[in-house]
Specification:
490 residues; 13% strand; Outer membrane efflux proteins (OEP); alpha+beta; four-stranded antiparallel β-sheet; single chain; disordered N terminus
């Protein structure tokens, strides 16, 4: 009689086998499940300065004002200006940047592939049914011919399993490693994006400072033209001094135009990363550019410990492990048996209204299939594993170099700030003295012009040094693989 539940009588045995197999897979692969998307900061990266939250005393009072835009500063073309903070820029980048979206899409694809690979390990449940009608002459089993007329109804239900078990287990483990790789690559993309946005934001602030310096140069040159003109009118100056002062003024105005162009270029680059309207000029909300305190004592760090938490290195390790499992799967494809197991419940009847007769067919088969393409696939997987290992070596070498370079850049930038601070004080004093000497008729025009340029260069040097110091710390955090959003406020 029709009894679909009869096939379920073998289900407990199959279920126990599957639970054991899945348990093995999950135990092996579960160690790579990440409960935290960001690695823990190793103790080796903690310094006394970081614990106290203080900069060296000679860097605390170093600051340079960020120029705030005047909407009438460029009367030829009035553009919309949007002020943006670093925190807002970072949040928008993590939410809107296309590279992050692509990385997360790849992670989603890897998750679905992992689900597919685990689904292959489960048995297949099949339902089928058919109806047929025979009307006419047929030949029976012993050769008789006769005319018949009948209907046949044939519903079936089956549970089957066809798999190379060893190969599929290794493929499932490889897919799990690929999922780990995708998760770590997403984290690596986020960290590199944080570095990119901070670099662009610091350059934006630097460009605004450049405008302020250029405007100050123009103002100083205009003042100097007036002084030189007055001296010439009084007969104590030369006409060449006025001409030279006007030439300097024209040059400074060109530098101001170039400074504004650099600001607009920096704004567009940041807007593209943040997916904002590039026609709207961005302006930092920071009032001053100051040295930040992230990791100001790098001399105690050990490079080997730093790079171990880098997500791209961990991702390369997972890719190598996945390639190794693919090699094992290829060997199992060649040498391992294929298991075919099936239990099928078949029902047959000549009308739908009456009962059905049934029978149960069961079969278990082990088979081996040899083909030369499987040997080629083994060699292919071995080559892919060798490539993955070489790529891991390349990333490790790059990481060691990035950490060491960033450490050296921090030391150099700290020293540059100290020297630039002294240079700015000297340049400002020199400018005041030179201008006073020129007004008293004791200095030539070139001395004043050189003093103006020296002061402007000193201001630019200290701004460049602060930016270099800040970015060197951020690059070191990125090179060590421990940079994350919360380090930069909300």
């Amino acid at each position: 009689m029709w009894n679909p539940l009869k096939i379920l009588s073998i289900y407990p045995l199959v279920c126990y086998c599957r639970i054991g197999l899945l348990g093995f897979v999950l135990c092996v692969s579960g160690c790579s499940t990440y409960q935290h998307r960001y690695p823990v900061v190793p103790d080796i990266l903690k310094s006394p300065y970081e614990q106290k939250g203080e900069l060296p005393s000679d860097l605390k009072d170093v600051a340079i004002e960020v120029h705030k835009s005047d909407h009438n500063e460029n009367k030829a073309e009035v553009k919309t200006i949007q002020r943006i903070s670093l925190a807002n820029a970072l949040d928008r980048a993590l939410a809107e940047n296309v590279d992050i979206g692509l990385a997360r899409a790849e992670e989603q694809i890897a998750q679905t592939k992992d689900q597919v690979s685990k689904g292959v390990l489960l048995p297949v449940l099949e339902f089928s049914g058919g109806a047929a009608r025979t009307d006419g002459r047929v030949q029976g089993s012993f050769g008789e011919l006769r005319d018949v007329e009948f209907n046949t109804y044939n519903p079936q239900v089956a549970m089957g399993y066809h798999i190379n078990l060893g190969s599929q287990i290794h493929k499932a483990l490889a897919t799990r490693r690929d999922l780990d790789f995708a998760v770590l690559q997403t984290l690596h993309t986020e960290q590199r994006l944080l570095l990119r946005v901070i670099e662009l934001y610091q350059n934006l602030a630097l460009s605004r400072i450049g405008i302020k310096i250029a405007e100050q140069l123009v103002a100083d040159s205009e003042q100097f033209v007036r002084i030189a003109s007055t001296r010439t009118a009084l007969g104590v100056g030369l006409g060449s001094e006025v001409a030279r002062a006007k030439a300097k003024l024209a040059s400074d105005r060109q530098q101001l135009v170039q400074a504004r162009n650099i600001w607009e270029t920096s704004s567009v680059r940041l807007a593209v990363v943040l997916r904002l309207n590039p026609r709207v000029l961005l302006e930092p909300t920071d009032e001053k550019l100051v040295p930040i305190n992230l990791i100001p004592s790098p001399e105690t760090w050990k490079v080997e410990e730093n790079v171990r938490v880098r997500p791209d290195i961990k991702a390369a390790v997972r890719r190598t492990m996945a390639a190794s499992h693919q090699v094992s799967a290829a060997w199992w494809d060649l040498l391992g048996p294929e298991l075919t197991a099936e239990v099928r419940q078949i029902y047959i009847g000549d009308r739908l209204s009456s009962g059905f007769n049934d029978r149960t067919d069961s079969r278990l088969l082990l088979s081996w299939t040899f083909s030369f393409d499987k040997i080629g696939r083994i060699n292919q997987r071995k080559a892919e594993e060798a490539l993955a290992r070489l790529n891991l070596m390349k990333i490790e070498d790059k990481a060691f170099g990035e950490v060491q370079i960033a450490r050296q850049e921090i030391h150099a930038a700290m020293e540059r700030i100290r020297l630039a601070k002294d240079g700015l004080e000297a340049a400002q004093s020199n400018h005041h003295i030179s201008l006073a000497r020129f007004q008293a008729g004791m200095a030539i025009v070139l001395e004043v012009l050189d003093a103006e340029d020296a002061r402007a260069q000193a201001q630019l040097d200290i701004a460049l040094s602060i930016v270099a110091f800040n970015l060197a710390q951020v690059r070191l955090l990125t090179a060590a693989g421990i940079i994350h959003r919360d380090l930069f406020g909300r």
